[in-house]
Specification:
By secondary structure, the chain is an alpha/beta fold. The protein has 2 domains: 445 residues, Alkaline Phosphatase, subunit A (3-Layer(aba) Sandwich); 123 residues, Arylsulfatase, C-terminal domain, CATH 3.30.1120.10. The chain is built from 16 helices and 17 strands. It comes from Flavobacterium frigidimaris.
Length: 634
């Protein structure tokens, strides 16, 4: 990581208690730690000399920072990266900024967000799985609690003179702490956000969200959540700028979109009627052609074979095509509407003359496209854990086709559309072994700092790199301590040098991945990967029936490792494991080293933990997930 420039402090008058109190109240000056008293204390005021610590302020003219992170968007969904779903605002930001085409996430939401906020790997900051009780475990890498020694971007910038706001999805507060009684240490306000409006969990209803503001739950007003968070983000900035014109702010804008439930007004979904009637196979072909024209994938890229789970669109019945198409129309409308709400925020910054001096990072997805709608798509939230047959689910979806996308349903699209919106990669969300789970689009927009407009950057980068890159842009050094708590070293690597140099070499050479048993290790263009968890059908059966839990593969030693040269084969079509066994062994050893370094062990498959908890009986009390699965296999 490149060394950052020192931040600049603006001296303030030292005219006594009253003036200092006014300044603190008006401008929110902060200090990272108490300073030694440098005045004189006598027996009387006349014999004494006052001393006021110099407040910390941001450099004059320091840019604002906006991080935007979308949810469950595959590489081939947005038109900004060649997809068939219209996202004109994202296109505009990309065309006037930079497209990073080799950016990576962790393959699922909470680990990605914990890594983004802290600049360190998710297991290192204790979020190897989730912060939810049912998907966490009592080990350092798995307990779901961000440590104080791994400060967030909000904590860092707050103590550098920024106001800090967050809206939307947070996702890294432990369930047992997510009540109005707290404790609030792991709420956003306990992690550096001066104001936060949104929800603490991983997903929520768009019209009846589980809303909080600051440190209390509040009643939603019935409008779509995306509209509410945009209004709130704008209001935070308006109030702040009125009180302290020119003071920089950090905004974390994190819509629930487009995670399930897919809910959006018909004014957004109806314009897509008939647009996907030619199916997911045609979508894939059109998208990869668009991506080549845009230059966001290699010109010689080849589309992976259709996944064996996915049906040939041409062989589907008319009713199947009708239902599946409607799911995609709603998803597309949902993403276009999300783009519109981002546009409201961008337009406000432009109209208030703040956009030119704002650094914007847009992560189009916190993982690959969602496979959680299963083969048929979901209208009911619990479709894929009830043990229903595919035909039963389909008939229910057909019966309720007119309700898809409405507040009365909890929808998610079928797996075929997940594969389509993940072009040019195979696999999808949760698959940390595959680029389909971890390879997402990134846009960087900064008019004052980026000379080239519409440029393409192919340097390898990862979500932990966003924080150090932001600090380098601002000329801010990572603090040694935050509020007197000594900090761990940030693990990410700044790609600041690539903003104005398309040929800059990536500093990020090694990166491990692990989600629910699926795992991989990247080393300077080479990647070894092992799939672990089963396909959607097996998972559905196991989750609904403890007797079928043996369908899940809990034996990590039986996982088959593959080897890819992603510099030459970016979408993993040619497994080189048999050709280069020594290279594979070298990478597997490196994975073990990284796992030990980052609190990754013990290896845990979330389905093991989930099964143990949802099928809890006196006979399973005190038994490990491995023991339960072994028993189920018998």
């Amino acid at each position: 990581m490149e060394k950052s420039k020192n931040s600049i402090s603006i001296k303030s008058p030292q005219k006594g208690l009253l003036i200092t109190a006014i300044l603190l109240a008006q401008f929110g000056f902060t200090q990272t730690k108490p300073e030694e008293f440098k005045g004189v204390i006598g027996k009387t005021l006349a014999e004494s000399k006052e001393y006021w610590p110099e407040p910390v302020t941001a450099p004059k003219g320091a840019p604002n920072v906006v991080w935007i992170i979308l949810d469950d968007v595959g590489y081939g969904a947005s038109s900004a990266f060649g997809g068939l779903i219209e996202t004109p605002v994202l296109e505009s930001l990309a065309n006037n900024g930079l497209r990073y085409t080799n950016f990576h996430t962790t393959a699922i939401c909470a680990p990605t967000r914990s890594a983004l906020l802290t600049g360190s790997n998710s297991h290192k900051v204790h979020v190897g799985g989730f912060s939810h009780t049912i998907m966490s475990a009592g080990f350092p890498g798995w307990d779901g609690r961000l440590p104080s020694k791994n400060g967030t971007v909000a904590e860092i910038l707050r103590d550098k003179g920024y106001n800090t706001f967050g809206v939307g999805k947070y996702g890294v507060t432990p369930d047992e702490e997510a009540t109005d009684a707290g404790p609030f240490d792991h709420w956003p306000t306990g992690k550096g956000f001066e104001h936060f409006f949104g929800f603490l969990g991983s997903a929520t209803d768009q019209y009846k969200p589980d809303l909080i503001e600051d440190q209390a739950h509040i009643t939603p007003d019935g409008r779509h959540l995306s509209e509410q968070i945009t209004d709130k983000a704008i209001s935070y900035i308006q109030k702040q700028q009125k009180a302290a014109p020119g003071k920089p702010f950090f905004l974390y804008y994190s819509p629930a979109a487009v995670h399930a439930p897919h809910q959006v007004a018909t004014k957004w979904s109806d314009p897509y009627k008939g647009k996907f009637d030619d199916g997911w196979d045609a979508y894939r072909e059109k998208t990869i052609a668009n991506q080549k024209k845009l230059g966001v994938i290699p010109a010689n890229a080849v589309l992976p074979e259709r996944n064996p789970l996915i049906a040939d669109w041409k062989k589907l019945t008319p009713d199947q095509k009708k239902v599946y198409s409607r799911f995609m129309e709603v998803y597309a409308g949902y993403l276009t509407y999300t783009d519109y709400e981002i546009g409201r925020l961008v337009n406000y910054l432009k109209e208030s003359n703040q956009l030119e001096n704002t650094v914007v990072f847009v992560l189009i997805g916190d993982n690959g496209a969602s496979k959680e709608g299963t083969l048929q798509g979901a209208v009911n939230r619990q479709t894929y854990v009830t043990g229903e047959t595919d035909e039963t689910v389909f008939q229910n979806n057909l019966k309720r086709i007119g309700e898809i996308g409405t507040p009365e349903t909890y929808g998610n699209y079928p797996l075929g559309w997940a594969q389509a919106t993940n072009v040019p990669f195979k696999d999808w969300k949760q698959d940390a072994n595959s680029e389909g789970g971890t390879h997402n689009p990134l846009i960087v927009y900064y008019p004052k700092g980026i000379k080239e407009k519409g440029g393409i950057r192919t340097q390898y980068s990862h979500v932990i790199d966003i924080l150090p890159t932001t600090l380098d842009i601002l000329g801010v050094k990572a603090p040694e301590s935050i509020r007197e708590i000594k900090q761990d070293t940030i693990q990410g690597y700044s790609f600041f040098n690539s903003l104005n140099d398309a040929k800059a070499v990536s500093n990020h050479k090694i990166q491990h991945y692990y989600i629910f048993g699926a795992r991989a290790i990247y080393n300077d263009g080479w990647k070894a990967a092992a799939a672990h968890h089963p396909n959607s059908i097996e998972a559905k059966e196991a989750l609904s029936d403890p007797k079928k839990a043996g369908l899940l593969n809990a034996d990590f030693d039986k996982d088959v490792w593959e080897l890819y040269n992603v510099n030459e084969d970016f979408n993993e079509r040619k497994d080189l494991a048999k050709k280069y066994p020594e290279k594979l062994a070298e990478l597997k050893k490196l994975f073990d080293e990284q796992a030990k370094k980052n609190n990754l062990y013990p290896l845990i498959d979330w389905q093991d933990v989930y099964l143990r908890k949802i099928h809890k009986t006196p006979a399973t009390e005190g038994k490990s997930a491995q023991e339960l699965l072994t028993k189920a296999n018998k």
